[in-house]
Amino acid sequence: MLQRLSAVIRRPMFWHGTHHHDSNDATKRLFDTVSSTVKGIQQINYVVEHDPKLTAEEKSKMKQFLIYRYDPADENDFPKYVSYYVDLKKIPPMYLDALLYIKDNYDSSLSLRRSCREGICGSCSMNCNGLHKLACIHAIDTDLTQPAYITPLGHMFVVKDLVVDMTNFYTQYKTIDPYLKRKTPKEGNKEYIQSVEDRKLLDGLYECVLCACCSTSCPSYWWHPDRYLGPAVLMQAYRWIVDSRDEYTDERLEKLAEDVKVEDCQNIGMCSFTCPKGLDPQRSMNHLMKLIEEYKERKIASATL
Ligand code: SF4
Ligand code: SF4
Ligand code: FES
């Protein structure tokens, strides 16, 4: 039975459809996307009870999880929350534990990504009760009087349930050449030596697990995911720019200085607020923008010599 959700403010903001990257039919693609989105906007305020037979007494002893479910490939399906009740005494404390319990015990068709269960692989990123987090290292709110909402990362195309299409994110990551680039030939099998101070510059950058929690929390990225690279990718661009072993610093800065790859940052800091690894992409972006400005000034100065 369907019920209307009163907490409309919690309605997630994402596209209830998929990106059909390999389709040549642009009109059909647009129509599919728009129609599935409209369908989502009409229907998302509904809750389906997974087990309508549960009594109020039974429910009061368990935690309610309202999980976004939708399969865009099924034309009879529609975006909705499905309500599941879980006895928190039976599971470990993280949101991923609840999701795996539900998948194992209630409904194996629930789709989500996960791998390491240790906050290392970055694959279980999703919205847990209003914040983009890694579900494996984010503790469940244990207040049984309040439901926990679990939805996909915001403003992403939904592939199914909690799985979103990461293609654009990874394509953007690839554009920054996220690897060491050298001009001088390598001497045999010698390592590229770094001073302790130079190595320290990479702290707070190399730990990024590319979960996209920051980019998908960024309002500028919501509006221009096609041309603005977003905090996660820009922080990694900065990571290679400040790496003392890399010899393509100016080329990297030149590429980033083009159009609005960087400049759409409004410096509000949602990215750093949400990062589940405690990193500070906003700070990196500020440093990066300063380096780009300095590079532009150097370029003008050398052109006028
Ligand atoms: S500080 Fe910049 S990158 Fe971070 S969320 Fe705000 S606009 Fe996005
Ligand atoms: S900076 Fe943090 S939130 Fe952003 S991708 Fe890296 S680990 Fe995830
Ligand atoms: S499962 Fe790997 S980060 Fe959560």
TrEMBL record:
One Pfam family it belongs to: Fer4_17
This enzyme's EC code(s): 1.3.5.1
Residues annotated as domain 4Fe-4S ferredoxin-type: 198-228
Alphabetized GO MF terms: 2 iron, 2 sulfur cluster binding; 3 iron, 4 sulfur cluster binding; 4 iron, 4 sulfur cluster binding; electron transfer activity; metal ion binding; succinate dehydrogenase (quinone) activity
Topology relative to the membrane: Peripheral membrane protein
The reaction(s) this protein catalyses: a quinone + succinate = fumarate + a quinol
Keyword Transport in annotation: yes
GO cellular component: mitochondrial inner membrane
Compartmental location: Mitochondrion inner membrane
InterPro entries: 2Fe2S_fd_BS, 4Fe4S_Fe-S-bd, 4Fe4S_Fe_S_CS, SDH/FRD_Iron-Sulfur, Succ_DH/fum_Rdtase_Fe-S, Succ_DH/fum_Rdtase_N
Pathway(s) annotated for this protein in UniProt: Carbohydrate metabolism; tricarboxylic acid cycle; fumarate from succinate (eukaryal route): step 1/1
One record GO biological process: tricarboxylic acid cycle
Enzyme kind, highest EC tier: oxidoreductase
Keyword annotations: 2Fe-2S, 3Fe-4S, 4Fe-4S, Electron transport, Iron, Iron-sulfur, Metal-binding, Oxidoreductase, Transport, Tricarboxylic acid cycle
Family per similarity comment: Belongs to the succinate dehydrogenase/fumarate reductase iron-sulfur protein family.
Protein name: succinate dehydrogenase
Organism: Paramecium octaurelia
